[in-house]
Amino acid sequence: MAIASARKNAAGNKVAGEIDFRVGTLEGLGGGFDIVLANLLPQEILSMASLLPAQIAPGGVLIISGFLPKQRKEIAGAFAGQKLQIRQSRVWKGWACFVMGRINGRE
């Protein structure tokens, strides 16, 4: 269902041909992505905090969303030990989002 919904959203935004949709585990992806987007429930984000950074290419970004503004401190803390820094933090319509990158930008 997630893939079908993502495809529909991409089509509505006229970017469907630019996105590769896949089902699998983080371990099976191999990493090296310029942009990693995780719009998940907070408990899922927290459980993947040690796995998501490995998917980011040097100079890439990790965008996480799907958590409440009051959960920002907990979510930020989970990524603090992963050599990521928050570059932007946004709140929109009751939801929070972080855009993160590697501390040195290249690692």
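The record above closes out task 2.4. Task 2.5 opens with a second protein, given below.
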Amino acid sequence: MRIIWTLVVAGLLGACHEARRPAPAASGVDAASPSPVPTVDVAPGAAPAMAGDWASPLGNGSIYDLELTVRTADGASVPLASLAGAPAVITMFYATCPAACPRLIDDLKGIEQDLDAATRARVRFVLVSFDPARDTPAKLRELAGERQLGPGWLLTAADDGAARELAAALGIKYRALDSGEFFHTSVLTVLDDTGRPRARVEGLGRGHDAVLAALR
């Protein structure tokens, strides 16, 4: 039976602006810290520690257990689980976002640039739009060209149900506004080869040491 997540949407704060960071879960991580918490090595067989702002809503579960399908910039509908077998940095966005999403892509490009060549060749940067009506395959291809996103990037869109389920799993809040824009939080999550979260950073322009350590 498919895992069902409930998305708690924050109040209306304004289009494409960051929300107040949620209180950290009972992991002892300080969400207000100016830099991410470094990754922690664990013994074989032990549950790995989450790096970053606070523990993932998935716990130690795999995001691929959600059995979600997304539409790619090529127009194909593919299971999110097709990403299994390589590490990924995943986030949610919408292509016409005027402020936060371009900065979010800049943060991802900074992470990509700071990876060594061997790691960079393995990592996928996955953006999932919660605005499927406007983020058509053509629009996603246009954005990829404008931002010069390479073959390691996968721009996709999810239908409303899948987007809400994925957002809940990643701890992302979003809400459509009457203006056609979205209020949303900006969150980067590192997934290992099996889709389990290994690092998480909320906010824009923050250090990404924890992300780089998890990917390496």
